[in-house]
Amino acid sequence: MMRWTLTSVRHALHLLENMSVYSTAKILRVSLGVIQRLARKLPLLGQKILLLSKARGIDTLDPDATWLDIFGLPRLWPCWIGFVRELSLVLYPLLHMAPTIPHEM
Q1: Is residue 99 part of a domain?
Q2: Which of 7, 15, 19, 28 could potentially form a cystine with 23 if both were Cys, beta carbons 3.0 to 4.6 Å apart?
Q3: Cα–Cα–Cα angle for 19, 5, 13, nearest 5°?
Q4: Which of 1, 27, 3 is nearest to 12 (CA)?
């Protein structure tokens, strides 16, 4: 199982822009299915990052921005943990809607 960091996503994006999905999977030493799933999820993830950044006033991109530019926006956030939290809230809203259960004493 591969965990994707922002750096590894940017690396995969760079490879996908210049190579086939098969070649990217071979270079990253992951299965073809993993790269295909990542490639399917990247547009939604990039869109969410762009919307969050615009809402925070961090959007410094020109209209010709590439996916690599969009996935570089989290570097401009003042706090990485804050970015991850907000992205999680946007991507997985149902996980954050569960009621809080008070601890028993």
Answers
A1: no
A2: 19
A3: 20
A4: 27
**Number of structural domains the chain divides into:** 1
Query: Domain limits at 89?
Result: 6-94
What the block records as the tokens of 89 is 């809230």
Question: In Å, how far are 6, 30, 97, 99 from 50, measured between CA atoms?
Answer: 14, 27, 23, 29
Q: Which pLDDT tens digit goes with each residue over 3-43?
A: 778 788 888 888 998 999 999 999 999 999 999 998 898 88
Within 13 Å of residue 36, how many CA atoms lie on the same side as its CB? 4
* Residues 6 or more apart whose Cβ sits within 8 Å of residue 96: 88, 89
